[in-house]
Design a protein that fits this description.
The chain is an alpha+beta fold. It has one domain: Ribosomal Protein L24e, Chain: T (Roll), CATH 2.30.170. The strands form two sheets. Strands 1-2 form a two-stranded antiparallel sheet. Strands 3-4 form a two-stranded antiparallel ribbon. The termini are far apart. The relative contact order is 0.13.
Length: 73
């Protein structure tokens, strides 16, 4: 009886992990690099700025501010 319970629990854990790994993968998400610090992050999470036809992505407001202040635009 205890082996049956152990088997059921292991099956539940396996099914949960399989589903969470399938749903949590980043293979469908496009990564972009922060124009200021170079950190990679999903495009949907990045702040986007288009300036003279060039798209810049930033990981935070602080990086965007530093980039604007540096005049690299």
């Amino acid at each position: 009886m205890k082996y049956l319970i152990l088997f059921v629990l292991l099956f539940i854990v396996w099914a949960y992990l399989k589903k969470s790994l399938k749903d949590g993968t980043m293979k469908d998400k496009k990564l972009v690099s922060c124009s200021q610090c170079g950190t990679y992050l999903p495009q949907e999470d990045a702040k986007k700025e288009i300036n003279w036809g060039k798209t810049n992505y930033f990981c935070s407001d602080e990086c965007e501010k530093k980039y604007v202040e540096s005049g690299e635009q």
